[in-house]
Structure formats: structure tokens, C-alpha cells
Backbone:
């Protein structure tokens, strides 16, 4: 009996988590639980980000890390410092969350080729 060592264990694990992470975007469709779904999506994104960045650093995917900083972190920081009218505040807070899930979607499409 031979034990097979998977060189791409972390990449495969990230791919599985991306499948679950993107399924949390279904919470957006639950409009009758609007406040709860936004909080759940935000908590899922915050908890998943360190794991995702750890795998990207291990795989030396610095382009993806820079793309994450530009597309998610910078808009989040920018929106936090903007003085926005209270009626549009919730819309502007959803923009970084939408960017995060779009980033995860793109990463999910590309990550399948990393294991080859």
C-alpha cells in the first residue's frame, strides 16, 4: 500500500472553500432577511480572507494578492472614509462586499488550472 502525497493539497482545499464561500452569496437573494444576510455575508468574507491570503502567499500568487488589495481592500477603506448621506450608505457598504465575491468567483475559475 502506497501513500500518495498531494502536492496541491492547499490549492484543492482553497478550491473547496471557494465553492462554499460563493454559496454564501445566495444569501443576497434572501431579501426578507436583508439585515441578517448582509451580516452573514460580511462575517463569511472576513473569516475566509486570512485563509485565502495564506494560500495565495504559499502558492506565490502575488498578482492575485495585489489584485485583491486593489479590488477589495482599497475600495473598502475608501468607502469607510467617505461622508455619505444615510439613504445611500447601505448601497456604498455593499460595493466592497460585491467586489469580494466577484474576486472569489474569478479566483474559483482560475484555481482549477493551478493544480495541473
Residues:
Amino acid at each position: 500500500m502506497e501513500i500518495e502525497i498531494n502536492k496541491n493539497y492547499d490549492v484543492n482545499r482553497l478550491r473547496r472553500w471557494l465553492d462554499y464561500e460563493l454559496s454564501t452569496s445566495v444569501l443576497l437573494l434572501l431579501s426578507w432577511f436583508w439585515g441578517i444576510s448582509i451580516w452573514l455575508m460580511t462575517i463569511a468574507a472576513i473569516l475566509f480572507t486570512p485563509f485565502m491570503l495564506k494560500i495565495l502567499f504559499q502558492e506565490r500568487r502575488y498578482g492575485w494578492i495585489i489584485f485583491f488589495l486593489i479590488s477589495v481592500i482599497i475600495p473598502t477603506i475608501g468607502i469607510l472614509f467617505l461622508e455619505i448621506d444615510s439613504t445611500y450608505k447601505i448601497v456604498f457598504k455593499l460595493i466592497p462586499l460585491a467586489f469580494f465575491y466577484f474576486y472569489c468567483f474569478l479566483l474559483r475559475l482560475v484555481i482549477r488550472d493551478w493544480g495541473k
User: Anything to note?
Assistant: The chain has a mean pLDDT of 78.
